[in-house]
Design goal:
Chains C, D: InterPro entries: AAA+_ATPase, ABC_transporter-like_ATP-bd, ABC_transporter-like_CS, ABC_transpr_CbiO/EcfA_su, ECF_ABC_transporter_ATP-bd, P-loop_NTPase. The complex is a heterotetramer, with 1 copy of chain A (241 residues), 1 copy of chain B (207 residues) and 2 copies of chain C (252 residues). Chain A has 9 helices and 2 strands. Chain A is flat and about 65 Å long. In chain A, helix 1 packs across helix 6. Chain B has one domain: Arp2/3 complex 21 kDa subunit ARPC3. Helix content of chain B is 73%, strand content 4%. Classes of the chains: A mainly alpha (241), B mainly alpha (207), C alpha/beta (252). Chains in contact: A-B, A-C, A-D, B-C, C-D.
């Protein structure tokens, strides 16, 4: 089996993105419950191979909660065939099946994308998107957003702090204050963007903010073809079962 | 209000990408008609960052805390730039925080992008005449439209074996739970646009 | 009369190096004390602890004899941020200055009176309606101070008050601060400003107090200053006109 | 040899008061000149005009004998902004420094060489991979200068280079600038820095040049300085230890 996460450093961000998209869509196409263990096994293998298990497990928490929600709620509210009855609560088979399918796909896709994409910096991913043909306007937008995210989030939290230190209200009455904060941030952002544009122009910005990209290597191509084969195999297996 | 990976059938996810791709193509071609498109990139990027950062701040709206969606405000402030900004934001959210998902990025783009364009259209056509009313409608309306698209997609995408009545009931609960967000967003957009009109009208190019 | 007393205060997060350790000092009502030290020496953490934003891991902070608890709203202490823009979030100057007073639950009349007084004290009368972003750097700084004064605090914490001001605005700020009777802690790299305003100075480095004494003695101690990344202010050094010469070029 | 020559330059917008008027001066290759004046005196507009962002309404700007046109990309002139964060828009230090060199259309090898040299000159070697937001204030300032140096400019325009730096970073910056052989215009409120680095200074007020001469003579002229909102630097004033006394309090 082509396990692309075996070489977390060598594989380019572009190949990682392609592999992640191909496999995620392959997983999403699965409709039979029998295949779910296979998906989960691949996802888990990817997670193990990524070498950042603790980090990725922590980031998987949200998806795990959501999956647990589907697993718990769908059997309660949906289906015709009674599976079990515990006092006033009835569990239905169809709901349980749908819940297991959705939860399995969700966890497998998120685990796999984390395993593939979390070793690469977000900036490299955006550069990879650009190399894959995403319009440079969008890639530049993503670059600058990533660059200034921390700073603007810091500004907003300092603003919240200033509000609190001056006895700012809580609850509904805080909503207009929050709007003031957003408005003043927007005005500051606008003023800053004029400086930013001057700086970009003075250093010769014409098209694109990032370095030229190297061509895809043999390993990249191998992983992309491996992932495509795996995705088609999953699809074919699923439909033939 | 993001559709997670694994929930929607693959055909719908692909259709979502097609829809978002179309929206992006239209807005990019509109942007290219501007006199100097690249000069607007820094401004759009800075504003996008503010929206992105502001949507991460939890604001207390009893009985819960909510994260703002800000699709309406985004549409009013950025116009056609709202679509690329939303797609970029969704991609970064999926990669950085695991919100939403890779396969559902296209669908999520529609859930936020169409309301943003609605707000943009509302503001451009009537913002000058009834600014406060339009701001309120743009803010709350964007959330309502996003909820409706979200619910419609979920209904269309769920396995047929499921009991439609129970599903609808669950969706109603979901929509009611978002009522505070509808009100809070309307109020926020109203106040923000009022402040901008009063102190920095040059920030509102249309309306 | 003691207004503020810190005793063996330590601040930090479990498993990390502490940002403040064993900080002990007290401050009399109405006293002005400078706090100097390199960036990262713990000045901001110290201010956040006194303002009740950070809770000390160890030790106590007492204000007017009362023990401080974290998260408490303290109208008595006003923190003036280094970045004026972060502090001024209301649309206009008047609204921003009134913000704190409104939150004290005062009558509108009382609020208006306090705002007028604070604006007058800071030389901002007549600018109430001005959008905040249109103010100059010096006006923003004074607007932050006005927003603090309106709550009638007994202690002002000023973080780099003269940063990014031109000389005229800096002079005006110094005159304003010199005329106020609130107690102040002034963190600054502008040692000349500290020298002009404060009779006492505290040197902070790596989270510890390295010196605490009369400003002229402490800032004039070349060995001490050099050890903590500071320089003796020019107004305290013997004149040495040759000093600039070697750097300057002859080309014009 | 004249590098830059401004002749009767006026900048402004139709129907508004002009921000610069009748500005004439020239600058030799390798010379360092200070530009002082209150905020709003036109320093930033002057720099933007020389960098080709603003077009003069009247008069001419010549660089190496060539007339400047607006909007031209001028690798020969590098502007270092007051706000380092606005200038460092790339994700990591290395990429940011390389940005300008890449846009000159150099080969990747040449880019890498220039980046390494610029980083070395600014004492930033080894920090290439560091995200920009994690740099300290002093590192950011030097990163901006490295990003300028990589384009091998013959003129550097520095806008408030020492703003928001602590004394250690400021000293390091002064040493860096003193060792560079590019021509520089340094706009600063930090007159001690101007005094250390520049043999000549230009005083700007209300868009006009009020004085242009040897730094020590100009900055030491108390009447001139006071007339333009400046103060004679402490290192040029006769010692007057009583000066601080009247402001300081006796309370501690």
């Amino acid at each position: 089996m082509a396990d692309p996460a075996c070489s977390p450093i060598l594989l380019s961000a572009r190949a990682r993105l392609v592999v992640a998209f191909v496999l995620a869509f392959g997983f999403a196409s699965v409709q039979s419950l029998v295949m779910v263990p296979v998906l989960v096994a691949i996802g888990a293998a990817g997670l193990l191979a990524s070498g950042m298990i603790r980090h990725n497990l922590a980031r998987l928490r949200g998806a795990a909660l959501l999956a647990a929600g589907f697993l718990l709620i769908l059997p309660l509210i949906s289906g015709q065939t009674e599976l079990a009855s515990l006092g006033p609560v009835t569990l239905y088979l169809e709901g349980a099946q749908a819940g297991a399918l959705i939860a399995g796909r969700l966890l497998a896709i998120v685990a796999l994308t984390l395993a593939l994409l979390s070793p690469v910096s977000p900036f490299d991913l955006v550069a990879g998107m650009r190399a894959l043909g995403v319009p440079s306007l969008m890639a530049d937008l993503a670059f600058l957003t990533l660059r200034y995210m921390q700073e603007i989030a810091g500004q907003l939290s300092r603003g919240q702090l200033a509000r609190r230190l001056r006895g700012g209200k809580t609850g509904w009455r805080a909503v207009p204050d929050h709007a003031f904060l957003v408005a003043s941030s927007l005005i500051r952002a606008q003023l800053r963007s004029e400086q930013l544009w001057a700086a970009m122009r003075l250093r010769g910005y014409n098209a694109g903010l990032n370095a030229p990209v190297a061509p895809l290597g043999p390993l990249d191509w191998a992983c992309i073809s491996g992932a495509s084969v795996l995705a088609v195999a999953l699809f074919w297996l699923d439909r033939s079962l | 209000m993001h559709l997670p990976d694994g929930l929607m059938p693959v055909e719908m996810a692909l259709a979502g990408y097609a829809g978002s791709g179309l929206l992006a193509t239209i807005s990019l071609s509109r942007i290219k008609r501007l006199p100097d498109p690249s000069s607007v990139v820094p401004r759009a990027a800075m504003l996008t960052t503010v929206f992105f950062a502001a949507s991460l701040v939890a604001i207390p709206v009893p009985p819960t805390t909510v994260h703002l969606m800000l699709a309406g405000l985004l549409g009013v402030m950025l116009g056609w730039f709202a679509i690329p900004a939303i797609l970029v934001g969704l991609f970064l959210q999926a990669v950085l925080f695991g919100h939403g998902g890779l396969t559902t990025l296209g669908l999520n783009g529609l859930i936020l992008g169409l309301p943003a364009l609605l707000a943009f259209g509302l503001w451009r056509s009537a913002g000058r005449r009834w600014p406060d009313l339009v701001a309120l409608c743009a803010g709350s309306g964007a959330v309502v439209l996003a909820l409706v698209i979200f619910a419609a997609l979920v209904l269309a995408g769920m396995p047929a074996a499921l009991d439609a009545r129970a599903e609808q009931a669950a969706l109603w609960v979901f929509m009611l739970a978002h009522l505070p967000l509808v009100l809070a967003e309307g109020l926020i957009v109203l106040v923000v646009l009022r402040v901008l009109r009063r102190t920095a009208p040059q920030l509102l190019p249309h309306g | 009369m003691t207004l503020l007393a810190l005793s063996r205060v330590a601040v930090g997060w479990p498993g990390q190096e502490s940002v403040l350790s064993d900080v002990t000092f007290s401050l009399a009502r109405g006293a002005r004390v400078g706090v100097v030290g390199p960036n990262g020496s713990g000045k901001t953490s110290l201010f956040h602890t006194i303002a009740g934003i950070l809770a000390p891991q160890d030790g106590t902070v007492c204000l007017s004899g009362q023990l401080l608890r974290k998260g408490q709203f303290l109208p008595e202490v006003a923190l003036v941020f280094q970045q004026a823009d972060d502090q001024l979030f209301c649309p206009t100057l008047g609204e921003d200055v009134a913000f704190g007073a409104r939150n004290l639950g005062l009558s509108e009349q009382e609020v208006a009176l306090r705002v007028a007084n604070a604006l007058h004290a800071c030389g901002l009368t007549g600018l109430e309606g001005r959008p905040v972003y249109q103010l100059s750097g010096g006006e923003k700084r004074r607007a932050c101070i006005a927003g603090a004064l309106v709550m009638q605090p007994s202690l002002l914490l000023l973080d780099e008050p003269s940063a990014a001001l031109d000389l005229r605005s800096r002079r005006r700020l110094i005159n304003l601060l010199a005329g106020m009777d609130q107690a102040m802690l002034i963190a600054s790299h502008d040692l000349e400003l500290v020298l002009e305003l404060c009779a006492r100075v505290i040197v902070l480095d790596e989270g510890r107090i390295c010196a605490d004494g009369p400003t002229r003695d402490v800032l004039g101690d070349a060995a001490l200053m050099a050890a903590h990344g500071q320089e003796v202010p020019h107004s305290l050094t013997p004149h040495d006109t040759a000093r600039h010469k070697h750097r300057q070029q002859t080309r014009r």
